[in-house]
Amino acid sequence: MTETTKTAADSPDGSSDGSGAAAADELRTLLLSRIQDVPDYPKPGVMFKDITPLLADATAFGALTEALAELCVRHRADKVVGLEARGFILAAPAAVRAGIGFVPVRKAGKLPGATLGQAYELEYGTAEIEIHADALEPGDRVLVIDDVLATGGTAEASLQLIRRAGAQIAGVAVLLELGFLDGRGRLLAALDSAPLEALITV
Q1: What domains, with CATH codes, occur in the chain?
Q2: d(CA 34, CA 172)
Q3: Nearest 10 degrees: CA dihedral of 63, 3, 76, 99?
Q4: Considering the chain, what percentage of its residues have pLDDT values greater than 70?
Q5: What is the pTM of this model?
Q6: 8 and 21 Cβ atoms separated by less than 8 Å
Q7: 123 is known as an active-site residue
Q8: Catalytic residue (choose from 28, 86, 97, 106)
Q9: Which of 37, 109, 154, 186 has CA 20 to 30 A from 1's CA?
Q10: Which of 3-12, 59-68, 189-198 has the weakest average pLDDT?
Q11: What's the angle, vertex CA 33, arms to CA 28 and CA 38, rounded to 5?
Q12: Residue 86 falls in the annotated catalytic set
């Protein structure tokens, strides 16, 4: 099993050249300049990455939306799944820009009507996420978008949920990957060779 991972040097059309690398570096610099480190939040010893300054900057948010929309097109996605809660903020405008539909993945009990659920393990206990039972069509290619990839538990559960709905995985895209937590390693089996795209890795 081989994981396909695009790098910052890849241009939007999938080629790798100097101009693509320069554009990716410029985007990364812009986005990083708008992400604020908040020490000791939500508990002592944790450095929280606050993306709200990025969202408040129209230029940075617009560039992020464009980059995510380009990934939707590159990976031929029919639908975008956004993970609760900040994933909604990034995924919905990217889906609109790409001209495809947006599907929210929510915590259990938050969606009305018939749903599909998927439980997953936490450090202490379990949690469950859901989508509407009719949100995805068999054969849909689905790109999962979230703000941060940390341990990968929610993203892994979302991939399992998408497959249970009969849809295909187009990939996972995140604004920020926390490489030291190895969420990428956890997602390898669930991705099954689909790409994992991180605009920034720290």
Answers
A1: 20-201 (3.40.50.2020)
A2: 22
A3: -30
A4: 92
A5: 0.89
A6: yes
A7: yes
A8: 86
A9: 154
A10: 3-12
A11: 120
A12: yes
